[in-house]
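Why should sequence recovery work at all? Because a backbone constrains its sequence more than one might expect. Tight turns favour small or flexible residues, buried strands favour hydrophobic ones, and helices have their own preferences. The token representation captures these environments compactly. In the example below, the structure is given first.
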């Protein structure tokens, strides 16, 4: 069995494209580990401005982490019901509506399945079919009862939820909003595969975000020029193990209880809302190219880049002018998805 995490490399690929500035405002940055990933926040401004950001992240983590026994989510999973408050309430509400919007490709109640594959502990295993079919009836966000007026939420017996598919996107957005409220007009936040751009580079040009080749995680295969938006990538290469020559990754198809295998190897979402981008990167990966393209066609709040298992890149129309292949990838076939 082999496991590999490629977040640090991904981070390098981003830094490679951000360049440096000769503007008067200084670049200040901070790197730390939280939410199971390396975070790097880099902004133009005073050193002091970053002080509060790590606290914002650790507050969110302690409210929402499924593994922190004092979190609201752990209490919900243990007791079956709880009254949610603050950011957890906001995020659960937004996430449940995204489960609905994606027709269950995103399903917060996938957690028991994620556990049985060992993705929560690192003790990876391929569960037998009976184990999966006994857990599948518990995977159904429609059985979650949520009262938006009070924040009360309750789960059927044995159902458990987690916010792993959306928490980092929400957290990145919250930090970006905080920094903007405090006068930051230029910065780049990296939370693992989640990038949050604040404004433009200090010279006024867009940020250049490197998107890695999902088949070779040392190489950025394309670059997106982004201003003040989120860019979130979900890929089979982020967390996976191999057994008997087959690769199993951490993005699950809620219909089957197995890793989603619909021909996509990475999905990148670009949009104004970090949480939405995070949730959609996971769920459009589950849908596969055809359904994901239809879903985009009916939406107006995001753009996407898909890489299929034969190495073809599909970009949605709105990214046509902000997309470029890197030098080593000039031969890649790129198709534009139109409305
Ligand atoms: P990462 O957290 O590695 O950046 P994602 O944002 O794609 O990746 O989220 C993957 C995590 O979401 C998994 O580790 C698992 O906890 C959870 N998850 C996996 N499949 C689904 C799904 N179909 N719906 C909701 N959550 C999922
Ligand atoms: Mg996600």
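From this structural description, the recovered sequence reads:
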């Amino acid at each position: 069995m082999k496991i590999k995490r490629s977040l640090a490399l991904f981070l390098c690929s981003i830094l490679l494209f951000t360049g440096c500035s000769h503007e008067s405002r200084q670049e200040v940055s901070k790197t730390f580990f939280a939410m199971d990933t390396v975070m790097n926040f880099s902004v133009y401004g005073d050193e002091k401005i970053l002080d509060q950001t790590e606290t914002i992240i650790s507050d969110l983590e302690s409210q929402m982490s499924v593994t922190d026994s004092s979190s609201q989510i752990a209490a919900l999973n243990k007791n079956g019901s709880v009254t949610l408050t603050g950011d957890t309430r906001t995020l659960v509400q937004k996430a449940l509506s995204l489960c609905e919007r994606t027709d269950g490709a995103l399903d917060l109640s996938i957690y028991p399945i994620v556990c049985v594959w060992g993705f929560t502990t690192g003790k990876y295993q391929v569960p037998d079919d009976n184990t999966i079919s006994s857990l599948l009836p518990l995977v159904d966000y429609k059985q979650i009862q949520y009262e938006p007026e009070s924040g009360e939420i309750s789960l059927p017996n044995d159902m458990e939820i987690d916010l792993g598919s959306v928490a980092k996107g929400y957290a990145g957005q919250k930090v970006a909003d905080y920094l903007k409220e405090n006068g930051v007009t230029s910065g780049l936040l990296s939370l693992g595969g989640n990038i949050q751009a604040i404004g433009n580079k200090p010279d006024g040009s867009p940020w250049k975000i490197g998107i890695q080749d999902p088949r070779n995680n040392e190489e950025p295969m394309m670059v997106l020029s982004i201003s003040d938006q989120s860019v979130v990538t979900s890929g089979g290469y982020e967390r996976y193990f191999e057994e008997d020559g087959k690769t199993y990754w951490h993005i699950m198809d809620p219909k089957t209880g197995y890793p989603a295998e619909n021909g996509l190897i990475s999905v990148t979402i670009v949009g104004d809302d970090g949480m939405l981008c995070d949730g959609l990167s996971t769920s459009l990966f589950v849908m596969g190219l055809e359904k994901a393209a239809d879903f985009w066609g009916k939406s107006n709040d995001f753009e996407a880049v898909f890489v299929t298992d034969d190495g073809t890149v599909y970009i949605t129309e709105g990214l046509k002018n902000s997309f470029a292949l890197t030098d080593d990838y000039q031969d890649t076939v790129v198709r534009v998805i139109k409305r």
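A few observations help interpret the result. The mean pLDDT is 92.
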